[in-house]
Amino acid sequence: MPSLYRFIDLARVQRLISERADCLVHPTLWPDPFESHFFYARELGPMYRYNGIVSSSPPPPGTDFSPSCSWFDNEKHGCAKFIYAQCWSTRAESDALWRRNKLDVRVEVDLDVLKALVTEAAGTNAVLFGSVKYVSEQEVAASRTAFLKRWPAPSLPPHVRPTSEWFTEIAAIMFEKREAFDFEHEFRIILYDQASYLPWRETVPAPLHDNLLLSERTNMPNTYPYKLDFNNHIRGVTLHPLLNDSEVQIQTQKLRSLGVSVPISQSSLYKRQNFDTWISQHIPRPGS
Questions:
Q1: Is residue 17 classed as helix, strand or coil in its secondary structure?
Q2: Mind listing the pLDDT tens digit for each residue in 100-152?
Q3: Domain range for 110
């Protein structure tokens, strides 16, 4: 069965073991601004750039100007706050991933097991699974701009259903990412917590449903938990390939002390024996 991989630090390992659960997070917590800032975005209407300024007022007659898209104003779609996601990788070994996650360990999970765990936690909420498509920055910007023009915050329907065009389109956007990140080979879980969204709307005055500042909202968690028993659901833990023997022993002992009982091994990405084995199999010895 296919596996998925994720890099986490030891503190996260400890939480997973003690809480026996993992969680999806709100995309505003992601580092890529084309994803995190998108969830704060709202269409403000036509903007104009002229004389070194950006304004919603048309320029004076005869003034050279260019259209300017300006839809980052720190407000966001009410529905979008109830989108949660989690990222894994379909690639087991990657020099780029290990270098970006120097202090982390890699955990492995069976894809079907993970799907079952998240689907159970989702209940009646919509949840999607799929690999990320990597496209140019221009394509990423174009799809997000088109979405925000089609779904400006004040015009969201009063009861967005998981099968609606809105959810379909926002999910499609979340399954694409800039080509600069293609080394990740990312696999995503996307969940729309409709069960929490609809009751929340009933506590907010109708004119403000989809147009509140984040600071004005309450009881809106940034995480969506699902059960995960580390020692039953995680296939194994892999240590960084550049650790020396002493560091491998120390980190293995730390993991065991945290309660990890699954197999622990070190990545062999940089091990010379891999090359020596290849040489012995493919290059004949002199005189042989």
A1: helix
A2: 998 899 999 999 999 999 999 999 888 999 999 999 999 988 888 787 777 65
A3: 24-43+72-224
* Token code pair at residue 163: 């099968």
pTM confidence score: 0.76
Domain count, the chain: 1
Cβ–Cβ under 8 Å, residues 110 and 132? no
- String of b and e for 88-108 (b: at least 16 CB within 10 Å)? bbeeeebeebbeebeebbbbb
Backbone φ, ψ for residue 210 (5° rounding): -115, 25
Question: pLDDT digit string (tens) for 17-62?
Answer: 999 999 999 887 788 877 776 665 544 445 556 666 656 566 677 7
Total residue length of the chain: 288
For residue 276, how far is the Cα from the chain centroid?
38
Asked if residue 217 belongs to a domain, the reply is yes
Using DSSP's 3-state secondary structure scheme, residue 173 falls into helix
- Closest by alpha carbon to 31, among 80, 131, 93, 100? 100
Residue 215 belongs to a domain: yes
